[in-house]
Description:
By secondary structure, the protein is mainly beta.
Amino acid sequence: MFSSSPVTILAALILATPVIGVHYALTDSYVGSGFLSGFSHEAIGDPTNGRVNYVDAATSAAQNLTYASSNSFIMRADHTSVLSASGPGRNSVRLKSNKAFTNGVAIFNIRHMPQGCGTWPAVWTFGDPWPTQGEIDILEGVNDQTFNQATLHTSAGCTMPASRSQTGVALQNDCNVAVNSNAGCGVQIQNTASYGPPFNANGGGWYAMERTSTYIKIWFWSRNDASVPPAVRDGDGNGTPSLLPNNSCNIAQFFGAHHIIINLTFCGDWANAVYGNFNCPSTCVDYVNNNPAAFTNAYFDFAWVKVYA
């Protein structure tokens, strides 16, 4: 277990500059049933228009879509029901942290993530109202894509510099949701173990997000990565991040207090639009409706989430 004493994040502001130390103290720890008390089920219509039916806590428990042990929290979608084309989407879960966070560090120790054609899992944070308070996508992708995609979404005025110190590959540099079909300023984490079946085959790994008033950074380490800093297992992180916004965006202006969101939807605006690019059968909606067994592995297994401020 983690101590509540201060830990040190060693964050390279840019690759060529000296490393600085920033002290953070543990404020929130979610382990096992702590997810059920620290997060709330959001039984809402899917804002991304997915083929999904987000259920409430009672339904989730009754259908075993969320359950916990002393050191594990499972969150999954229904994988037994054939759906009517005219009925609701596949039962799944969207969780929102009860507490909102600003500057600090969040570490996600994930053993398994949802996989499969039609899936669209995400671990992210956002502020209300959206998009003026910003969105940070930490782990997100569709249809077993090769790499995880970390993305910022904001109102107009936040951009990323074309050249910046990071290990990921930039996709767009304008974070404005009103341009590029709300693609945001995304970065692909160029590690095949960062997403989907390879992530799961390696036993998952650690995602870390650091946010300050001047930058946001995201890191990934696979479970068997020899370069994982020993302190990461206790909620610490260092190295060159995959995403490094700096002086092109006023972070304090475009990002407010954020809740953590964990959700799994199907098809929708993104996964459906690119479904044909992944050698997946049929159409996205038809596949999700008629192949429940295909979603046996559409689940998250969290060892823990730790937040430091």
